[in-house]
Fold these 2 entries.
Entry 1:
Amino acid sequence: MSLPQEIERRRTFAIISHPDAGKTTLTEKFLLYGGAIQTAGAVKSNKIRRGATSDFLEIERQRGISVTTSVMTFDYGDRLINLLDTPGHRDFAEDTYRTLTAVDSVILVIDCVKGVEAQTERLMEVCRMRNTPVIVFINKLDLEGQDPFDLLDELEEKLSIKVRPMSWPVGIGATFQGVYDLHSKGLRLFDPGKTKLEKASTRISDLADPQLDKLLGADPANELRASIELIEGVYEPLSIEAYRSARIAPVFFGSAFNNFGVKELLDAFVDIAPPPGPRATDQGEVQPDDKRFSGFVFKIHANIDPNHRDRIAFLRVCSGHFERNTYYNHVRLGKELRFATPTTFLAAQKTIVEEAWPGDVIGLFDTGNFKIGDTLTEGANFNFRGIPAFSPELFRELVNQDPMKSKQLEKGIRQLTDEGVAQLYTQQPGNKKIVGCVGELQFR
Ligand code: G4P
């Protein structure tokens, strides 16, 4: 496949949400559709995950919390999807912000009972700043949620973005019967507790069709007709260009847990979400179809293997073609580096890759060469811009209890600062060392 074809088929994105809105559940359903996992439950709750999970780091299992950004790659139809996981806990918001620099779009999950929550607003601010296209999935329709029109108003008000419903729920909670897809004009009836993949919907191209009354009952059918009329009258039709330039967010309704409305979401996503686009550098934009490879590091993990002190740098490919065992320019160090074992990730497995294309994320084995934000190129000397600086909120003084171990301490601190987990300050006079972190959890 040519470089433009490789670019066009890729969709690199993240699912973001306030904790508990259903991000993990939706991720799992996407992986099921992509054939990447075979059974529901393989990706456990992101609070505590066991076995084959998208958290593959021992350190996370020990902490019992998803602290990482892992990457799940799978095919869906003729598309290749790179789904970047983001930690749910608010103490790791910084990780999430950095991950958002490496995606081309996001899916934002909202709990229909709770509506827009604090973390949703913060995450959306980052998306707005970066002009990241957003698709909204309103989840948990099987619960007694808020009125869908109120939810749309709340989204527009609190997230400062125009929305456009792409599907519409029939009832909610106990009266929830299904979702009408405005795009394909299909009605999908709800079958609670279903964990298998969804079947085709009933096509109802004309809402006046009496079949609708038979399927839903006269009152809900009339209510749906009235709602759709209102939507078509009030909301602008979706323009893909407006969505891709982050001016309008398409909205889908469903229930991730019941695997309901998920396929519509995924199908629309692969259809309309943008492929890898141009990226800003200190020397102008780099186009993905620029033949020369370039990419940047947005995340560093230590202790991938608890028996070794090695690290993995996560690099997002921005242009050209990355190849294994080829020398590339580490711009900050002015040094040529090559990588014998670049990896891609799927859940718990790591696989060595021979090549990667724009939109892909690869893990590079690192012996201390990389810092977050570093650029790697095929010769050029530019640096990618826009990886958020991290502003610590909690500070602790470091007291070395064992002067014999000051070297180890220094090394450990340097590792944490390179990874972006902590920042080190020295207070004068007295040479006091102070460590700053974003959240309590990072001190553990
Ligand atoms: P998160 O990653 O955004 O934090 O959310 P997660 O998917 O872990 O979901 C949070 C809780 O919400 C889970 O329940 C999950 O089962 C539930 N949930 C997700 N989607 C739906 C839905 O469509 N309807 C309903 N009713 N619930 C949903 P839990 O009890 O906290 O965890 P678990 O024991 O199910 O893993």
Note: The CA atoms of residues 186 and 285 lie 42 Å apart.
Entry 2:
Amino acid sequence: MALLEIKTAGDPVLKTVCTPVDKITKRLRKLLDDMAETMYASDGVGIAAPQVGESIRVCVVDVDKKNRYDLINPVITWREGSVVDNEGCLSCPQLFGDVERAEKIRVEYTSRFGKKKTLEADGLLARCIQHEVDHLDGQLFIDIAKNITKGDKPNRKRDA
Ligand code: ZN
């Protein structure tokens, strides 16, 4: 595995709508592993392909360092409730802000082995998946956050 360079706000790749993956290859699985390693090394809870310069619809999330999800072509098909919480982003160093997200979601995706999957999530996992899917649509959290602050620490550590 290898650490990848994280693109930061201002890089056009982060504003580009990503292309769906049509074929799961060995190269794609290596990219997912490298993205995960990069995310863990940066103490993040999620990472999307455009953050490492790849404009394709894949992301990796792991909010408890125990359950890693590799999401290929994720589509959020159901949302319920609304909750505001503080977020950060590996591509927006030292920026934190409050973002309103659905409280619960259902996401359909393809696994790294090509299986169609459905995941229901709430709490931080739901927030993180919504943040990453926004990345795949070229949207950064700072585009929608309120009360943005600059500093070394958020209210709670949850960079994605
Ligand atoms: Zn992010």
Note: The chain has a mean pLDDT of 95.
